[in-house]
Amino acid sequence: MAGEFGAVLRRLREKAGLTQDELERRSGVSVSTIRGLETGKRRNPRMTTVQQLADALALRSGDREELLRAAVPGRRGGGTGEAEADAPEAGAAQAEAAQAGAAQAGTAQADSAQAGATAVASPAVPPPAPAVRAAPAEAAEQLAKAVAARWQREEEQRRIQDPYPLPVRWKAASESLTDHWANIRRLPPGVPSGPLDLSGRLEGVAETYRSIPSGRLVVLGRSGSGKTVLTLRFVLDHLRSRTSAEPVPVIFSIGAWDPTAVTLRDWLTEQLTRDHPGTAAPGPGKVSLASALVDSGRVLPVLDGFDEMADGLRRPALEALNATTLPLVLTSRPAEYAAAVAETDVLTSAAPIELTDLTLDDLDHYLPRTTRKADRSDPAAGAWQPVLKKLREPSPDGSPAPLATVLSTPLMVALARTVYSDTPEHDPAELLDTERFPGVRELEEHLLDNFLPTVYRRSRPGARGWDPERVQRWLGHLARHLTELRTPDLAWWRLGHGLRGSTRTLVTALVTALVIGLVDGALSTAFGGSLAGGVLDGTVVGLLAGLLFGLVHWFTYTVTGKDVQPSAVRLRIRGRPRSTKWRAGSRLVIGTLGGAFFGSAYGFMVGLLRALSRHAGPASALETGLIDAILFGLIFGGAAGLSFCLLGLLETPLDIVSAVSPGSVLRADRRTVLIQLVFWAPVFGTAVGLGAGVVVDLLQGHLGQLVMDPMSSLMLGTISGLGGALGYTLTLTAWGQWCLLARVWLPLTGRLPWAVAAFLDDAYQRGVLRQAGAVYQFRHARLQSRLARRRR
């Protein structure tokens, strides 16, 4: 039957007009494997290999079924099918034919067997495609819908179509930045090759990309030339005409990637999970859907902002991109890309294009239509006509006017429109004053500096008024914060990273100590009836809890350099949740070890202080401390392990199609944390209270005479439940750190306003910031750089 499969594969390949080399590049299956299958030298192909070949050939259902039948002896149109396991050197045999016969919308189960054994799919389940491939395929379609909806909203917010898009054009880039055309055109050796005609306009960017056989495009353009707008339009147009066999274009801000620390595929997976939390759900095998989508080639990376990477990272980034064959789109300023190319090589098989400048005719057609009609007697008259007429007059030395040079990029045209077209009291004629603006730099700085005062001078319905001077200071802090972090992504959960790690940990420990101390003092007073005793107990417990939670935060995040990430799951109390891939063992171990560590340290310090308060000797105090350390370590370890396991049962992944924005991610994380508080506090408190009695009974006599009356157990459980939940929230959750640092400390020190979330959303509505999935970004890197320099 292997000969039948080879004949079918060869016929379908030739029908698609592909060579074996081209099929290798599309499918990721080596050409030696393809040649071996077609000649019959390689028998019993894996079903994953068959599916890769079928996807690369873009087979319809009939041809796909024929290929599967040829690969699986006995397969009859989705009925029963048998598959012989691969050779022993390929590893343990997997019943991949059973996966091919699994339910189309359900799950697939593959039975392990020894080499040479067979596995038969249940005849009751009749699907046309393996579930191991169906899950990523379905996720890709959901991802395509989510990406299209997101960027459509973003295009409307940026007013790109108001009144119409600026005419972004491009031409083929320099040959020194271009790979061999034979590589770009995927031609076999010896076939004559010539350059492609890559010139075009914004509305044809998707067609230009599809005309490149390698699927690799580099977009070069100077600052403000419209690269980001082009990528946005490319994504929307490509999705509008995309077939199910094509990957989903997803925009990634490559400036946030450190290629020396994270591989490209791992970074793409992380970013995909961040911006589309639903892809964190388990996929086929032991990986997430995000990883499955990236690894299977169902994501087309649109890497925006290569020039925004740190100087020392561009060369390793280009080398890492050349180490893959992924189709991709890369944007950069020409100088930065050329410098990286000079250090290593061009992007392999990539066709580069370079954006061209706007012309005076473009400005004549655009700017007058963006302003109000000032003279009713002359409807064609407007504030820009005299300025544009003046720009057409030849200069004495024949060089273009500085204003004409400035307005040759879409960014500066957009700034000029905001400052002058949308503000009737501003006259653009002042831009022609050569004494005030002698050169290009002065004009660009004038437009950048007046952008914020202009947009914040206007009132927005339902929005609060902001002092422009304070806005300048707050946005300057954010711009400098991003510059120091070397990333364009303004993530609400990382706002506290503008502080030094030691400062961040100290603030976390102090606020946690204050909150837990107040809760403990109030509850101790209520249970014991003594204010002095409650204050003393609250002070001791608060200081100990602040110290311990501060140390946990320090070792978990500050030392390792990790971020406190928002939760990628939600909790469902009612109903049976569609659980994530939950590992009870790991959760039990982590919870038990963490609880035991906290309980041991807490018990030792409390026992030591209790003994010293009775004027016991050092030896007796040390013995009491060790006994309490063992006692509380067992109590808190068991309670924490149980609580973490139960929390895992309630976790369910987010939907891929859920709308994701910085605000929605913040609200989702807050909702998850609050549900965790409501659930975790009573569960943990009850486990501590009941566990205290159980542990005391078990250790009675072994560690001496132990006493734990019901009131003490109730008090310990109540305080531990609330204190532990609050400490966990403030130190180990993204929303807790947001509340502690962004909502309290940074506003208290004047770096940010008190209503941070409202301020960021308002800045987005005014066009100062833009949304890129779960994070904000400044409208343009030039604006961020200017604000950061002024803040410094």
Describe the structure.
- Helices cover 54% and strands 7% of the residues.
- The chain has 29 helices and 15 strands.
- Helix 23 runs antiparallel to helix 24 and helix 24 crosses helix 25.
- The chain is flat.
- The protein starts with a helix and ends with a helix.
Q: Count of helices? A: 29
| Beta-strand content bin | 5-15%
- Across the major sheet, the strand order is 6-5-11-7-10-9-8
Question: What are the segments in which pLDDT stays under 50 over at least 5 consecutive residues?
Answer: 74-133
Shape by Cα distribution: flat
- What is the averaged pLDDT score? 80
Strand count: 15
Radius of gyration: 32 Å
Major pleated sheet: 7 strands, mixed
List keywords for this structure.
792 residues, alpha/beta, seven-stranded mixed beta sheet, two-stranded antiparallel sheet, 15 strands, flat
Short description:
With 792 residues, this protein is of the alpha/beta class. Strand 9, helix 13 and strand 10 form a beta-alpha-beta unit.
Give the SSE map.
Layout: H1 2-15, H2 20-27, H3 31-39, H4 47-56, H5 61-71, E1 82-84, E2 93-94, H6 96-100, E3 112-113, E4 118-120, H7 131-157, E5 169-172, H8 181-184, E6 200-201, H9 205-210, E7 216-220, H10 227-240, E8 248-253, H11 264-275, H12 289-295, E9 299-304, H13 314-322, E10 328-332, H14 334-343, E11 351-355, H15 360-366, H16 384-391, H17 402-406, H18 410-421, H19 440-457, H20 468-485, H21 501-528, H22 531-558, E12 569-571, H23 584-613, H24 618-650, E13 651-653, H25 662-699, H26 710-732, H27 734-748, H28 756-765, E14 769-772, E15 775-778, H29 781-791
Parallel strand pairs: 7-10, 7-11, 8-9, 9-10
Antiparallel strand pairs: 1-4, 2-3, 5-6, 5-11, 12-13, 14-15
